[in-house]
UniProtKB/TrEMBL annotation:
GO terms for cellular component: cytoplasm. This is Guanylate kinase-like domain-containing protein. One of its GO terms (molecular function) is CARD domain binding. PANTHER family: CASPASE RECRUITMENT DOMAIN FAMILY, CASPASE RECRUITMENT DOMAIN-CONTAINING PROTEIN 11. Residues 1-20 are annotated as: Disordered. Residues 137-267 form the Guanylate kinase-like domain. Pfam families: Guanylate_kin. Coiled coil: none annotated.
């Protein structure tokens, strides 16, 4: 990575001679952190098509070939500021996309999606949202259409298939509404290839706030299984080719508060530029 990154406001850097633990890498990290206002931001704009991806060192790092993390001598030192803080991963090309239409919305963990969608539509101020109504097809119809153009998302239900197509999403968008999707993260790439740019809302879960989810009328008997699925979702999020919005555990106190925060965040994300990492499509 080029070393011509400059902080927005010049400030004196620590003298590496003053402490043996301060390496060039930790000084460079100090410069990078001045560009980043919040840890949960996955990219920071450097110019029109290049970014730096910052991820939490405590989470699973991206395994894409060619990515490097710390220098060997830095990673070997457990007291090194860089190894204890954030891993810096070389930037990769991204392209900016803007859309005037209301973007569809995906929710994670997926187990929460159906209940969240129902509560958004049942609460006041739901005029900006609508559910995505899938097509119901027989087995024969499903295989016939799937061979012509793969569905964005589908699930088998008894002897039929519920399928989400581009037309289903556009039918909601043409009415000036956000299409609320009950679908897996695996459909994100298919959406992006069709130039449909989803808003992804990730509700962060911890052992403390998982109990509050019982008020969403979810089946939470298997709490350990739910948390296992949640951790798998977090890993999957790190591999998607676009940004997602995270809701911190302390951002909401109850179910009504959660829905209000989600609606506000959707409207906020709609105003932002969409950045897509084309190499992952």
């Amino acid at each position: 990575m080029q070393s011509n990154l400059q902080p927005e406001e010049a400030s004196p850097l620590p003298d590496p001679k003053a402490s043996p633990r301060l390496s060039r890498a930790s000084i460079f990290l100090t410069q990078i952190l001045q560009f980043v206002s919040r840890v949960d931001i996955k990219y920071k704009r450097m110019n029109s098509n290049e970014r730096v991806r910052i991820i939490n060192a405590g989470s699973t790092t991206l395994s894409r070939q060619g990515f490097e993390t710390l220098r060997r001598e830095d990673a070997a030192d457990p007291d090194n500021e860089l190894s204890r803080g954030l891993n810096l991963i070389p930037y990769s090309p991204v392209t900016p996309q803007r859309t005037q239409r209301r973007r569809p919305v995906l929710f994670t963990p997926t187990a929460l999606a159906k209940t969240i969608i129902q509560k958004i539509l049942n609460m006041g101020g739901a005029m900006d949202f609508n559910i995505c109504k899938p097509d119901t097809l027989s087995k024969e119809e499903f295989h016939l259409k799937q061979n012509v153009e793969p569905f964005i998302h589908y699930k088998e239900k008894q002897a039929t298939f519920e399928c989400i197509t581009r037309e289903n999403i556009e039918a909601v968008a043409t009415k000036g509404k956000h299409c609320l999707l009950e679908a897996e993260l695996s459909c994100v790439k298919d959406l992006l290839r069709r130039e449909i740019y989803p808003i992804i809302i990730h509700v962060k879960i911890c052992e403390k706030n998982v109990k509050k989810l019982r008020k969403l009328s979810l089946r939470m008997e298997l709490e350990e299984e739910f948390m296992k699925s949640y951790r798998s979702t977090e890993k999957e999020l790190e591999g998607i080719p676009c940004l997602y919005a995270s809701l911190e555990p302390d951002a909401w106190a109850g179910t009504d508060d959660l829905i209000r925060v989600i609606k506000d965040r959707i409207l906020e994300e709609q105003r932002k530029t969409v950045w897509v990492e084309q190499d992952l499509l």
